[in-house]
Amino acid sequence: MALTIGQSAPEFKLFNSEKEEIALSSFLGKKVIIHFFPQAFTGVCTTQLCTMRDNLNYYTDLNAVVLGISVDSVFSLAKFKEEQNYNFNLLSDFNKEVSRAYGAIYENWILNMNGVAKRAAFVIDSKGILQYAEVLESAGDLPNFEAIKACVAHID
């Protein structure tokens, strides 16, 4: 199911790499950038999240939070976060419900892996409304970071 700009972002509750439950609704009043990524410890996923890590001050200065979501376990995400020194929440969508709700899932992926998050980026405004959506078919592509920055800068 493809999401439409202007609709309410699908609510979720997921556990982060510190085993704390995080709800999207807990960020009302802030802008939220969600980055779905296929798998921890892989090259393009590391580049995607390191780009967000290295630009986090830009987003926090604009009253925004960054969330990374994959179908990896909280244990894998904890090690990935530690090794890469990520300074934002990594959330485990191990049951694949959020990836499906956001239309960001490969039902059939490489090496017979089924139900892996697609690389995708979403920007949600402070009222919980979807303002930007980019779901990539090729796991080798990166989101348009400049478009994400521009969106965050121009919404409430």
Task: Summarize the structure in words.
This protein is α+β, with helices and mostly antiparallel strands and about 160 residues long. The protein has one domain (about 35-155): Glutaredoxin. It is globular. The strands form 2 sheets. It has a 7-stranded mixed beta sheet. Strands 6-7 form a two-stranded antiparallel ribbon. It contains 5 helices and 9 strands; from the N terminus they run βββααβαβαββββα. The chain has helices at about 45-55, 55-60, 75-85, 95-100, 145-155, and strands at about 15, 20-25, 30-35, 65-70, 90, 105, 115, 120-125, 130-135.
Order of helices and strands: EEEHHEHEHEEEEH
How confident is the prediction overall: mean pLDDT? 95
- Give the proportion of residues in helices: 25-40%
Give the low-confidence spans. Answer: none
Short overview:
By secondary structure, the protein is of the alpha+beta class. Helices cover 28% and strands 25% of the residues.
